[in-house]
Amino acid sequence: MTSPVLPSWREGPARTAILRFVAEVTTPDGDHYLEPPDRIAVFDNDGTLWPERPMPVQLHFLTERWREMAAADPSLADRQPYASAVSGDPTWIASVVDDHYAGDDTRVPALAEAIMATQQDMDTDTLAERVAEFFANARHPVLKRPYPACAYQPMLELLGFLRESGFTTAIVSGGGRDFMRVVSADMYGVPPELVIGSTAETSWSSSREAVVYGASIGVLDDGPQKPVLIWDRLGRRPVLACGNSNGDIEMLTHAAAAPRGLALLVRHDDDTRDDPPYDGGAERALAEAGRRGWVTVSVRDDWSCLYPDAT
Amino acid sequence: MTSPVLPSWREGPARTAILRFVAEVTTPDGDHYLEPPDRIAVFDNDGTLWPERPMPVQLHFLTERWREMAAADPSLADRQPYASAVSGDPTWIASVVDDHYAGDDTRVPALAEAIMATQQDMDTDTLAERVAEFFANARHPVLKRPYPACAYQPMLELLGFLRESGFTTAIVSGGGRDFMRVVSADMYGVPPELVIGSTAETSWSSSREAVVYGASIGVLDDGPQKPVLIWDRLGRRPVLACGNSNGDIEMLTHAAAAPRGLALLVRHDDDTRDDPPYDGGAERALAEAGRRGWVTVSVRDDWSCLYPDAT
What we know:
L-phosphoserine phosphatase activity (chains A, B); HAD_sf (chains A, B); phosphoserine phosphatase (chains A, B)
């Protein structure tokens, strides 16, 4: 018998915990009933809603920008990350990300500066157009399909099931907010105002009558900053949080501390399908999950398929 | 004949401009048609959706907090604004606000410090409870009714009409965001995530597993900061903006610059009813409205009533 909800979730503790949670908070005479405005669910993006390996999607976009910038200004071509982008060899960039997962952020400032440079002085409408162009054309290097078709199918089902159950679903990611917002409504059914992420500083240009990106980071939406930004943007406490890495610990803790909170931690443990296994960057989160009784979602055991059917 | 929409708006240029605008952006084959996700309308709050005289509503709330704090710590009672709160004479506080409207912010830092002190180290849930208590009990000093019954009736009709026409309506106010959010859904039909305002700095407390207010201002949502925060929170450009003071100029400019943008400026020019006439703090905005062709909303001429029927 096929279940009508969460069809790509196998029977098991994760699926059971989700169904029980939703039943409890939506049963009007139950102890844990929540009015719909209090049904807030937050999701990390990279590694939670879509894959972050072999490299975060946004890094693919940025690499294309760095290549264009180095073509326009050859003096950049010897510097990283531009050299890496020009050569088509992502080793340097990938190693910065790996170092970051391992706790070494030595080269992050150089990368951050180059990220800011891709959009500095650009107005917000123009960046959104470029991002839309990227999503229309780029392909995931392994899956060979457009990124908007690379969401994890079980997560699309979970987002939809929660919304049908009266939840507000929001994205809370370390990734760039203005990058994700361009596709969040079509991909995930999450409108721009419910996408929270890292930002560049912006200011009002009275001469251009537009909002324009500056040279510095506005906010890095990671770790303890996640619950702060959730309050900042939503004004409510989440009762369900779902993440996959150390940067999600505080957000998961905050949701789990709600009277009937549910914390879900996705574990990439599947060596048989198109989602490489890794625990790098999730070691502390996995330990916390064990200690605090968070629900672990095993990609291998809990998900019967990974991606939407190719179109 | 009573019109089915905007019944408290008298026939006149403001009402006509609003109806024409909504018709144009919602007519599918028209030149200015907008898909619903692009129908974004933003509203200032103090002096636009509810009265800001004799003093901003939030200042009433703060005065009660200062009185409590001075009672608990008598050393405060000789200092302003505490002394003013204890004596029940709002002259000092009102004069700081008047000076601000006149461009003199000399005493604003002392006021800001005292504002921050009312909530410092408090977690966000606790502040929300105190604000809810205030709204349940306080009365507007002139209107003698609870503040949630003090919204301008024509504005409630406009918010509702816009939402029925597929718009997302948001509040963008210099007032405290976490103060407004407590009543915005019930008063205005605007959920917390669509309330943008001034904030205190907040941080995550791992020991309390809560988001906690700090001692400094996070962001002052006024002037050029308004379009920046609209982008920051909504990720879309407004096509309708409505304000009443100099602090709304950039927000109005941004909306008016959209292909079929509409900027509405409320003018408090009624000396016959319960809304005192004043142009203080709106001089530049009124000049811009004339120069740029924004639509002025006259409280005297355009609104047939001011407040919802008393219950």
